[in-house]
Write the structure tokens for this entry.
Amino acid sequence: MRVEETSKHRVLALLAAALMLGGFLRFFRLGRADLTPDEAYSWAAAAAPTAAEVVRLQAKLNPGKLAVHDLALHAWIGAFGAGAAAMRALSALLGTLEIVLVFWVAREIFLLGDNAKKPVAEIGDAASVDFPAAVSAVIFAVNLAAIKYAREARMYAVLMVMIVAQMGFLLRSRRRDTLANFAAVSIFTALAIATNFTAVFVIITEAVWLLLSTNAEGGIPWKPLGAIAVGMSAFVAITAGAIPTGVATLENGTLNFIPNPGFWDVVSFFNYATLPYAVVLALALWGVLSGWSRQRPSVVFALLWMWGPVILLYVLSLTIAPLLVTRYALSSFIPFLVLAALGIWYCGPLRIQSCALALVVTLALVQFVSYVHRSPSMKWQNGVQRIRAYSPSAVIAVAPARGANLIRYYLSTVRGYEVVDLSDRASCTKSGILVIWNGGLYGPYRKQAEDCSAAFPHLLFRQQDFAVLAR
């Protein structure tokens, strides 16, 4: 009894440490860097005066998703303001919640197989479920990919919460096939896809796993498959008009900034830093090898979730449009880290397990310190300051259009300025100031900016690939 209490206290201590450390890393100096162009899209929609206007603007500014995040951010701005730190705090809060959800999902993964229909209290060694699940939460709490996207005022933290919640209820429904679990699977399936259409790659992976597995009677588990289908059908029925918009996003070249991937990009997808990645990869491989005979269903599921969305993105990148970027398969980092936690569990004595976990956390913290202490980009704020010093009023053309909302954001409290996209010759002609961000220019937009810049001989500000020019 005393051993069981010690194990329980150890798990609770790990989970508490994960929450405190993960929360600190997600909230640390949130407002230090400029808003990014993508965050400015979220602000432009969420700052609209009404929810209906948020929905309308979101469809125009953020195709490929619905207004789930922007409506939440709209309410958040109403309560806490539109400062960079305030808007990012919503994502940081949700990112901290993800840590608890990862513990729950990891626990459900480790309950697959022979223990699937048993209450945890009846499992011979409950620590074999709870301890690696808590370790998974700790590793996720300090993982830089998870932290980075929980520090942005974008939809990815909302997306992760929806996907992980959906995954948790799906796995739980395999142990307890109750109406409540299936209803939750349907609801979170619809919400996940609505938050970002790329969630469908995770849903497809789940469907493949279910078709390859069997239920207690030895047949295909139609109930969870049906719950997923109901969720997808509800999404299509309610928001069918948004799907053509998402397809148009691919066709009109909005995502052309994503490079064409090679096969090595698939292999190195989870590499966010060489040394931490090498250690986590070694632990994950050990988890696969050690757990293959003892926890094969858990290992198989983790490998499918880890690689399924990545491979689907790679195939689409080769056939339709480049899509293989971290944020579109961010949830796949979770099973990778779960396998690493399983590797730590199979390291042997508690002393060795603790050393392995301490090494992972230490390397991750060193990586985070390097990340957060890089010189933050202040080019947008500095550029706006030079514009205001140069003239109390002006029409400002911005190239590319992705940067226009950033200039609007930093001038949102100042009157006398009109910000326009450099979309045609007329916008160039009527403007007194030209802002060029070379980092966002590609294709015909670059030629357009170069032609227009000839009419703006005076340089007001330059920093790396960012310039403010005047007539």
Observations:
- The CA atoms of residues 63 and 170 lie 28 Å apart.
- The beta strands are 394-399, 417-421, 433-437, 458-463, 466-470.
- Residues 116-124 have pLDDT under 50 and may be disordered.
- The two ends are 80 Å apart (CA to CA).
